[in-house]
Amino acid sequence: MKDIVSKQDLSEHFHIESSATHTDEIWNGVGSPVYPPARAKLREHGIGTDDNELGVSAKRARLTSRVDYDKFDFIIGMDSANIRDLNRIFGGDPDKKIFKMLDFADRDGDVADPWYTGNFDATWRDCQEGCHGLFRAILTDPRFMEELSEGNSELYESHSNEEYPDSYRDENDNSFGIIYDDFPKG
């Protein structure tokens, strides 16, 4: 998600974090770094490199806490177990902030867990589609349009030139374009 937002030159408008719903990745109070095969998959796609570090090398697992609910507009779980855990941690979801990642890919199901499947390609696809859909949902949400359009009016203007071909427009609203829209639509 950080890569998508960065490519749109919108990083200053987003606060993106990752956290665990249980302590499996937190030993003796210290969170584990990004799993080496996951780091390799990120590097394969240009993330976590010297040119596009995005905090990958410094990332350590942390545990989700009750105060996270008030800090974020969207709380995304990768699977049904995460959603159950998030609802337990937060004592419910009164503001309707909790979603499953694939809800934004317009398909049901859980993100493929490479810990069990060993298939990092499937996980990459699931996360890529979900993050792209989430980004589109944020861009088209009236709650965020004003802030995101400040200094970035090209996101919300009609684009008819070749710089923004039809494939870069949302299929339901051709009035905004997404820069570097290089992943499939959910």
Class, according to the CATH hierarchy? Alpha Beta
In percent, how helical is the residue content? 25-40%
Helix and strand pattern: HEEHHEHEHHHEE
Runs in which pLDDT lies below 50 for 5 or more consecutive residues are: 158-175, 182-186
CA-based shape: globular
Main β-sheet, in a few words?
2 strands, antiparallel
Oligomeric grouping of the chains:
single chain
Q: Tell me the fraction of residues in β-strands, as a range.
A: 5-15%
Strand order of the largest sheet: 1-2
Characteristic terms for this protein:
two-stranded parallel sheet, disordered C terminus, alpha+beta, two-stranded antiparallel ribbon, 186 residues, single chain, Rossmann fold, globular
Describe this entry's structure for a reader:
With 186 residues, the protein is α+β, with helices and mostly antiparallel strands. It has one domain (2-177): Rossmann fold. The chain is 33% helix and 9% strand. It contains seven helices and six strands; from the N terminus they run αββααβαβαααββ. The strands form three sheets. It has a two-stranded antiparallel ribbon with strand order 1-2. A hairpin with a 2-residue loop joins β1 (26-27) and β2 (30-31). The protein is globular, with a radius of gyration of 17 Å. The two termini are 15 Å apart.
